[in-house]
Amino acid sequence: MTTSFHPPVRTLMGPGPSDVSPRVLAAMARPTIGHLDPEFIRMMDEVKAMLKTFFKTDNELTMPISAPGSAGMEACFVNLIEPGDKVIVCQNGVFGGRMKENVVRFGGECILVEDEWGTAISVEKVKAAFAAHDNIKALAFVHAETSTGVRSDAKALCKIAQDNNALSIVDAVTSLGGVELDVDGWGIDAIYSGTQKCLSCPPGISPVSFSDKAVDVVKNRKTPVPSWFLDTNLVMGYWGGGGKRAYHHTAPVNSLYALHESLVMLEEEGLENAWARHQKHHLALRAGLEAMGIGFLVDEADRLPQLNSVYIPEGVDDAAVRAALLKNYNLEIGAGLGALAGKVWRIGLMGSAATQRNVMLCLDALENTLADMNAPINTGVAAQAAAAVFSE
């Protein structure tokens, strides 16, 4: 007979999901009410207001899609891109490739700008792509590339789009709440994120925001939006302002409780304080890893503090180390993807996982595991190096 599932207690320091605060988990256990209940609608308005604050936008079309970040991505493309539209897509990792797939599947013409995995998107290459093609409708790029730990210059890239009268579509799945992000200040037209990264919420919800310019594009499409569920013209009848809401779908009520609580926690901490916390813990982790002799894939200037891609020491079995960390320490770190598989580990410091305890646990567990495998590392120095950063 099948029994209830009781998951082990893990420390999640991979590329996502991240550790979820007990406060957020407790919020999910609150009584379920109707998705058109006046009290739920009041909570929805608070979620929208907080998302606008953390996206740094006044966009009215700011809301959580009732599906994971991949659906947020699709919502941006399916609403804005029509057959024959030219879109410049930047790819410097896995998720730029998914943007390309969306453009192609919705009938657009994809102009690909490629950069080496582990490097930021080249602003000069993007300028050259605009110079070489006319009638570009949109520029699409990943702000924080989860597959590599690279942060690209979103402000500069959006300025290029603006200068060429093109929309900007931005993947902020891993950046929202972890590093600087300014939708209105940078002129971002469509942006999507996920709850399972720096917001420290369970996966399954995707915050999105569309500028007034983007909304006008959607309203003046030549063809209907080919997705009923993700058509912003329809879903805004439910997520629009005011007390009267039109039924669109049954929202994931308890998951939205969780998002609300995670946003309240971010509000209590302060957005800029959260950015600083992620950076501080990255610096401590970096000090410990480098003392151990483990190097980073990404140059410091382009490195995400919340997603650290580090080289696997020579001769070390990637999967064996990750399995040992999970078995012996209940600690999860991530494997490399694509061309980086077997070459790097991805160590996350996202949201509630960005703590001194987790940094020290990760360094201790990794050092002990690698030492047991006779890996070529320095031992007995990582914890002291990290502690020195925390004491500053």
TrEMBL record:
Entries under SUPFAM superfamilies matching the protein: PLP-dependent transferases
Protein name: Alanine--glyoxylate aminotransferase family protein
CC cofactor: pyridoxal 5'-phosphate
Annotated Pfam families: Aminotran_5 (PF00266)
Domain Aminotransferase class V intervals: 30-337
PROSITE patterns, per database record: AA_TRANSFER_CLASS_5
CDD domains, A to Z: AGAT_like
Keyword annotations: Aminotransferase, Pyridoxal phosphate, Transferase
Family (UniProt): Belongs to the class-V pyridoxal-phosphate-dependent aminotransferase family.
MF GO annotations: transaminase activity
